[in-house]
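Deliverable D4.2, example record:
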Amino acid sequence: MKIDFFECNYFHQLNSFNIELYTIKNFHNHSESYWQTVEEDVNNSMMAEIKDADTEDHENIVDAYVEDLINAQSTAPRFHRETMLVSLYCQAEYTLLEYCSWFNQDVMGKDSNFDKLSRHAVLDNISRYMQDVMGFDLTSFKDEWEYLKNIKLIRNRLVHSNGKVGKKPMKIESFCEQNVNFRIQNGFIVLWKGAIDDAINVLMKLLHKLENENQLFIGRHQEKFGAFEHTGFNNV
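Output generated by the structure prediction step:
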């Protein structure tokens, strides 16, 4: 059966998410810049007071600014990055579920399989569907997929234990050892300044590679059934 892929809902899912990622990245960078500016302003104000004060007053001045410095250097950026990572993973998972679900309806002519794929090991279900039904070569995006699975582990720790690594930490420890933007300090996962940019960049690479696999699928389908031809409009 010939299919007008451009009219299929699934066809636009990946590109729409990719566009959203650019907006999210821009928002994230503005937030990081804001807290860096706050830190610099607080530090400059503190140093200006210290410069004009007697030595015996220096400690009291530092004490007056220390909470604001901690908030700008650590508390606020950490909360922002953790929230961003959790949201990014949730949005990525939902997009991939929608992608497969619409493919099942648009191309396979079947009911939505969103609920079926979202049970238990979601990413394994999605990759299995992509391989078995869509004919995607999983090795072409193996590294990005493994990265996404590790982000899910970190997301789960952030949501359920405030970032505490807890039991069976081997996978998370291995990931953090290989990625300078994710660290473990005192048993807790810490997202460094580059963590969110790193996650977004990997997601963009994943979407690009999935789109390549989709184009290969379309080519195979059209070779077998022929390309859909638009009749256009008759001149009046």
